[in-house]
Amino acid sequence: MSDRKPLISGNWKMHQNHFEAIQLVQKLSYVLTNEDVDAVDVSVHPPFTDIRSVQTVLEADRIPVSLGAQHCHWEEKGAFTGEVSPLMLAKLDVEYVICGHSERRELFGETDDDVNKKVHAILKAGMTPIMCCGETDAEREADQAEEKVSGQVRAGLAKVKPDQVAGMVIAYEPIWAIGTGKTATAEDAQAMCALVRATVSEVAGREAADSIRIQYGGSVKPNNAPELMTQPDIDGALVGGASLDADDFGRIVQYRLVESGS
Ligand code: PGA
How many other C-beta atoms can be found within 10 angstroms of the C-beta atom of residue 150? Predict the structure, then answer.
C-alpha cells in the first residue's frame, strides 16, 4: 500500500440550488465520522452559485470536508463574460478545482491547451487541480484508449514543475462509464491509472509520479467502490450521480468498512 491519502470528490455538476446544497453538506456531516476523514480526504464541488453558502456551513459547523469547484477560467480577471477566475475561488477557500472534465471538453469545446492553462492558473492561485482525462467508447474499441489518455496527461502537465505535479490530482474517467451505470472493471481501471502514473513519471519524474493522487471516475457507487479503491494505483474517486445522495456518498467514503467486513 502506498502512503497516498485517498481523495474522494463529489462532482455535483449542474444540480442543487444553494438551499439544497446547504442541506446536502449538513446531511453529509451527520454521515461522516472522524475516522472516515482521518482515512480519506473528502471534497465537494457544488455549482458556483452555491459555493459561498457551502463555504459558510463548512466553516461554521467545522465540517472536515474540503470545498471544490467544477471549473474556472485561466485569467485572473478581464472581459470574459460568464467566467469565474481562480482568484475568486481561492478567496472563498476553495481547495480543489476540477479541470478538463469530459463534459467541458465535449460539450463546451475545452482543448488540451485550455486545460493546461487552467492547471497553471489553479496552481498559481494556491489551489489543487483535479485534471480529468479519459477515452470514449469508440477510442477504447479502436485500441486507442492508452494513446488518448497519455496524450491528455502529457498536454495537461506541459511546463508544470515536478514539485507542483506531485501535489496534483488526476482523475481517469472513461467517458463511456460516466453517468451510464457502466463501470470499468477494477482491472481495467487499475491498468489505466497505472498508465497515467507511468506517463506522469515520464514527464515529471518518479518522485512526482509516486506522490500524485489518481482518482477513478465513472459510475462509482457504494457497491463498486471497495474493489476500485483497493487497486494499487487508484487513490480515490471522482463521483457524480452518487454524490448527490449523502448516504450513498458517505458509503463510498466508507469503502474500507465493507472491505474489512464491518
Ligand atoms: P458519474 O459521474 O459518477 O455520475 O458517472 C462521474 C463524473 O463525471 O465525474
Answer: 19
pLDDT for residue 183: 86
| Spacing, Cα 242 to ligand 1 middle (Å) | 8
Closest ligand 1 atom, residue 180 Cα: 5
| Separation of CA 245 and ligand 1 centre (Å) | 13
Amino acid at 68: G
Residue 106 Cβ contacting ligand 1 at under 6 Å = no
Q: Look at the block and give the residue holding cell 481562480.
A: 86
Q: Which three cell numbers stand for residue 44?
A: 465537494
Q: Which three cell numbers stand for residue 10?
A: 463529489
Domains of the chain: 7-259 (3.20.20.70)
Q: For cell 459555493, name the residue.
A: 51
173, 167, 116: which is closest to 148 by C-alpha? 173
Q: Name which residue sits closest to atom 3 of ligand 1, judged by CA.
A: 240
Atom of ligand 1 nearest to the CA of 102: 8
Q: Compute the distance between CA of residue 218 and CA of residue 199 in angstroms, rounded to an integer.
A: 21
Regarding pTM above 0.90, the answer is yes
Residue nearest to atom 7 of ligand 1 (CA): 240
**Per-residue pLDDT at 1 exceeds 90:** no
